[in-house]
Amino acid sequence: MINILVVDDQKHIRDGLQAMLRQFPLQLDNIYCATGGIEALQILRQHSIQLVITDIMMPDMDGLTLMAQTKEERIKVDYLIISGYSDFSYAQKAIGLGAKGYLLKPVKREDLQSAVEHVWQEIRTRQVLSLNMEHISRRAQETDRKELCMFMQGAVNDEAWIRQTQQQNPELWQGYRLCLLREELRINQPGVSNAHGMESIAYQVYGRQGCICLQHRPYLILAVDAVIDTEALPTALKAGQIDAITAMTEPQQGLMGLPGSYTQVLELYRHSYLFPEKRCVLREHTQRLERQWELPHEKLYALFQLIGTKNSGQLIQEISMLFHKNVLQRYHIQYTEQLCRAMVQMLEEYERVIRPYMGEEALDIDCLRNLFDYPGIREYIQALQQQVLRLNQFYYEYKCSYRNSQDLNEAIRFIHESYHKPLDLAMVSNHVSLNYAYFSNLFKKNVGKGFTEYLRDVRLDKARRLLSETDHKIVEVAAMVGYESYKSFTRAFRDVMDMQPTEYRQMMRRKQEREGKYRETAL
To answer: Where is the Response regulatory domain (predicted)?
Structure first.
């Protein structure tokens, strides 16, 4: 689809040409009109026009002058010339200026259609070729970028490739810095990465020849002109309302230094976690950092000694002191990484102790393994505090549960020792020094049945053994297992076993006789 501009100082000719154009079986977008060359030039400057159909003789600016002016201003457009004169010199001048056709007035419909279709076909062919060339160019650029990125990350390439690549942008590779950009996004902040916006601003600062994009993800990495001041890009990003961390290497010469610059820029970016107040981290900010240290193991152990207590405020305070910026900013970033790993190891050790008691609950320790998964050190410390506080709560509940289990074990031991005596819940709860109602709930929750039911099962289990292994009378068995009356014993036995005690004894005697005969036969 194309836009056409009709230029003629006579209205009836303009209207006639428009009417004919709209009848043609062509895909036309818009048809503009102008009364002369000056108005036509303004329209050409403001709109994308592919074809101009213009008269030659017009009062303010004739058609040939209009063609010459658009050529001077490098406005790409095709022309069809119409004229009431058959002088061949006009046609020669028009063709010399690039006209695609020359039509005499009065313009015949079929001549106009044939000329416009011919120009339209040329325009379509050029558009398709242009798109194909753009596509090929983009693919070639993307291939070059990927090769550069792989070389930057350590892939081996031959000297011929290095020389050829340097020659494509010799001025930049003679003096460049690697620049890493990462937009500051808060955890759970909606929105998508603005990498292309940052890249666009970088090209505005350094120009197309002074900036090459080497990587988009996970960080935007650019090779930029080392002559430009290091504050220029952070300032432009701030003006563009993009909050980004910038890390820049020292100036480098030659493509051979690219892998080393890549290692340096990643290290500078990691150090940006130590200096959250700096928008641009340079080598000078890290040169004085100490590279020898000892982790504060005693403070770590002291912190975890607080786990399982109600001192959550002190836990947070101790973590804040361990990760205080005045401490972290003394050392290389590896100190902070080692401190994070030590915290994770301590969390794992403590969680391992109580994991069987946590059920479906669990700590999210994996989220703490990589400091650089977070926008900054502050967010990491917040996540760390949250997991430590969760561990503290779990451990506190575990310690309470452990104390309760000791009380329960003593209560159960007491029941098995005293089942043959008069026994009730109050006596057992007093024995373990627990509140009656609390002990009742605790017993049922952990044992799975109430105290009365449990005591009954213990007594009946002892009764079954006495019935099958001794000749004591039923009334004697009832008294021996703690029942005050024969009736209450037989009723309880029948409810559980679905038979009388005498029936159970007879059944067990018959079973023993059968087993005795079987053993005699086997011998």
So the answer is: 3-120
Helices then strands, counting H and E runs in the chain, come out as: 21, 10
CA distances from 521 to 417, 512, 518 (A): 41, 14, 5
Q: Which of 215, 278, 286, 213 is nearest to 249 (CA)?
A: 286
* pLDDT in the model for residue 345: 93
Rounded-to-integer distance, Cα 36 and Cα 523, Å = 131
Alpha-carbon gap, residue 206 to 76, rounded angstroms? 29
**Pick from 119, 100, 103, 120: nearest CA to 111:** 103
Distance CA 416, CA 420 (A): 9
Q: What are phi and psi of 336, to 5 degrees?
A: -60, -40
pLDDT (tens digit per residue) in 298-321: 999 999 988 888 888 999 999 999
Estimate the crossing angle of helix 451-469 against helix 377-418, to 10 degrees. 40
Q: Which residue has the tokens 């017009």?
A: 58
Instruction: Kindly list the strands in the beta sheet with 78-83, ordered across the sheet, starting from the edge strand earlier in the chain.
Output: 28-34, 2-7, 51-55, 78-83, 101-104
- Give the ranges where 153-231 is alpha helix by DSSP (H): 159-168, 170-174, 195-206
* Contact criterion met (CB below 8 Å) for 22 and 30: no
Please spell the DSSP secondary structure of 278-339, one letter per residue: -SEE-GGGTTT-B------HHHHHHHHHTTTSS-HHHHHHHHHHHT-HHHHTTB-HHHHHHH
Helix (H, G, I), strand (E, B) or coil at 54: strand
Amino acid at 402: Y
d(CA 162, CA 469): 96
- Residue the block writes with tokens 């002990």: 439
CA distance 62 to 440: 108
Distance CA 195, CA 217 (A): 9
For residue 517, count other CB atoms closer than 10 A to its CB.
10
pLDDT over 70 percentage in the chain: 90
For residue 131, count CB atoms less than 10 angstroms from its CB and return exposed for 0-12, middle for 13-18, buried for 19 or more. exposed
pTM for the full predicted model: 0.55
Please name the amino acid found at residue 332.
H
Among 72-86, 115-129, 186-200, 469-483, the least confident range? 186-200
Q: How far is the C-alpha of 175 from the C-alpha of 181, rounded, in Å?
A: 19
Cβ neighbours around 171 below 10 Å, total = 11
Q: Would you say the C-alpha torsion 121, 122, 125, 126 has a positive or negative sign?
A: negative
What pLDDT shows up at residue 187?
Answer: 44
pLDDT computed for residue 320 by the predictor: 94
pLDDT digits (tens, 9 = 90+) for 219-246: 899 999 999 999 999 999 989 888 888 9
- What token pair was written down for 199? 């890249």
